[in-house]
Specification:
The protein is mainly alpha-helical and 334 residues long. The longest helix is centred in the N-terminal third of the chain and has 36 residues. It is globular and about 65 Å long.
């Protein structure tokens, strides 16, 4: 590894630690570093302070770390697989599938009088979102086995998203005010609704997705030179697609299930990482994107808490300028 890259990794790690500590201190009740440290180490602090740090802010900060890394790595994989700088983790319809699952629970169940059903109660919003995301991915994966052109799969994924979004809009139109409000709040995203048990499930799924992403490093590097060249080098394209699709579902689908559709992190962070590290090698980009994504989402959470805004609005305001820059840059190159 180049010495410049080592320095950047160390700098990002230190920045991540600083942002993590700041995220524990900032909130409706401002805390000093000594109070946070005492709460984490069992020191002499007020019980209310210890509860705020351990039960609320620590969980939220860890969720930000995991979600930022997951969305960034999944976005990087999608951009490489589709050879499209504007591809994100939700281009396959993962976000739309998750929204459909949640809409069926929050909007559809009350309309049918099933809101108190044992099935829906056990499934929950997170389970419904993950089931919806997995269902859409299975449909896309089934199509990808018959279609060779990756751009056709991209278009089909976008069409599937449009169809699912239409169904969700119908449910929104006919639902009552209370159910509609709950669904709209879910679409704004939240890092603070994850329980301790859910955090364990989130961590397992994200770690599994990252392991699959690491396993896909060599195929992704070959795909940078085009699918035809990768085939001549003996790469199994269909197997690679399936591996990346599964990794993306575990990463982006699980984060969407537990945190809502947090946008622009998966689209913008891979570009920030390439610009900072000046690398195309996924052996560098995947860990760098994970680290950068964690830092960015921690920063977004700090801004969100300071201004009392939904996390999705903050990520959009930060991500849109980067996306505009990417479009302008590629238009200039062309």
């Amino acid at each position: 590894m180049k010495s410049r890259n080592r320095i950047l990794f160390v700098a990002l790690s230190l920045l991540g630690l600083a942002l993590f500590a700041a995220d524990l201190m900032v909130g409706s009740v401002q805390l000093g570093f000594g109070e946070v440290w005492g709460a984490l180490t069992g020191g002499d602090v007020a019980p209310a302070t210890a509860k705020i740090v351990r039960s609320i802010r620590l969980l939220k900060a860890v969720v930000a770390l995991l979600a930022g890394a997951a969305l960034s790595v999944s976005g990087l994989q999608m951009q490489t697989l589709f050879r499209n700088p504007l591809a994100g983790p939700f281009v396959l319809g993962i976000s739309s599938g998750a929204s459909l699952g949640v809409a069926l629970v929050l909007l559809g169940a009350p309309l049918l009088g099933w809101s108190g059903s044992t099935l829906f109660a056990s499934l929950g919003v997170a389970g419904a979102a993950w089931a919806g995301a997995a269902l859409v991915l299975m449909l896309v994966a089934a199509v990808s086995r018959r279609v060779k052109d990756i751009m056709v799969i991209l278009i089909l994924g976008m069409m599937c998203s449009s169809g699912v979004d239409a169904v969700v809009q119908i449910l929104q139109y006919v639902s009552n005010e209370g159910a509609l409000k709950s669904f709209v709040i879910w679409t704004m995203g939240s890092l603070g609704d994850v329980t301790t048990i859910q955090l364990g499930l989130l961590a397992i799924a994200v770690v599994a997705g990252l392991i699959l992403a690491v396993a896909a490093i060599k195929p992704l590097n070959l795909l940078l030179l085009g699918e035809n060249y990768a085939r001549t080098m003996g790469l199994n394209i269909r197997r690679t697609r399936s591996l990346v699709f599964l990794s993306t579902t575990l990463l982006a689908g699980t984060v969407t299930a537990f945190c809502g559709p947090v946008g622009f992190i998966g689209l913008a962070v891979p570009h920030l990482t390439r610009m900072l590290f000046r690398e195309a090698d996924h052996r560098i980009l995947i860990p760098a994107s994970a680290l950068m994504g964690s830092c960015v989402l921690l920063l977004c959470d700090l801004v969100s808490k300071s201004l009392t805004l939904p996390i999705n609005t903050v990520t959009a305001l930060m991500g849109i300028p980067i996306v505009v820059w990417v479009v302008w840059r590629h238009k200039t190159i062309a």
